Amino acid sequence: MDAMESIIKNLDWSPLFISLKTGIVATFISFFLGIYAARKVVKTTPGKKAVIDGILTLPMVLPPTVAGFFLLLIFSKRRPFGIFLYETFDIKVVQSWLGCIIAATVIAFPLMYRNARAAFEQLDVNLIYAGRTLGMSDIRIFWKVVIPSAGPGIASGTILTFARALGEYGATSMLAGNIPGKTGTISQKIAMVIQDGDYATAGVWVAIVMLIAFLAIFSMNFISGTKMKNIKRW
Questions:
Q1: In sequence order, which residues have a C-beta less than 8 Å from that of residue 163 and are 6 or more positions away?
Q2: How far, in Å, CA of 195 to CA of 188, rounded?
Q3: What is the pTM of this model?
Q4: pLDDT tens for residues 92-108?
Q5: What distance in Å separates the CA atoms of residue 33 and residue 154, rounded to the nearest whole number?
Q6: How many whole angstroms separate alpha carbon 164 and alpha carbon 150?
Q7: I want to staple 30 with a disulfide (CB 3.0 to 4.6 A). Which of 79, 112, 113, 169 is the partner?
């Protein structure tokens, strides 16, 4: 117990802060992009839907290192787009916190997209027709009718997206590297201390990640349970 207390007191908390910041920003970006993409895909034809859905879902089924490889091909300073970003806007993606955000967003985005799409597909279209009958614009219907009705699904997607972005490792390691205090996330810290044989410190970080994951799952189930309770009352 004394050894564990000593580890906690001397723990470098920067990986937690970096992971939290990365998760929050990646979730924010994925939230709006996921809702926008889901709404567009739901409205498109079945043939286009199959192709677009496959492309947008691909990062979820590919190994994260494969996604990281493609991100390196895009953003490396040796590649045209990476050179353009650096020389024109002085933006460096590789081995930077921006790289952490991009990697986490790419990996976590499909969860937001899939949940938002499922919520939109289960929406009662009569609500939309009623809004049009009342003279509401499509934008107002979307924010006043569609989003509240699909709220539980969107909320669940947001929570899962944050949890996934928080624990991203493969693509982040390849694109952003593992720079302590800059790009070193919790997942990278766990891998590093295990390589050093420090299983006690790794155990502390694992416990922290498991606690965050449990809180995320609890929040998602609570939101879903509240929705089902309201349906039963209705």
A1: 23, 212, 213, 216, 217
A2: 11
A3: 0.88
A4: 999 999 999 999 999 99
A5: 12
A6: 21
A7: 112
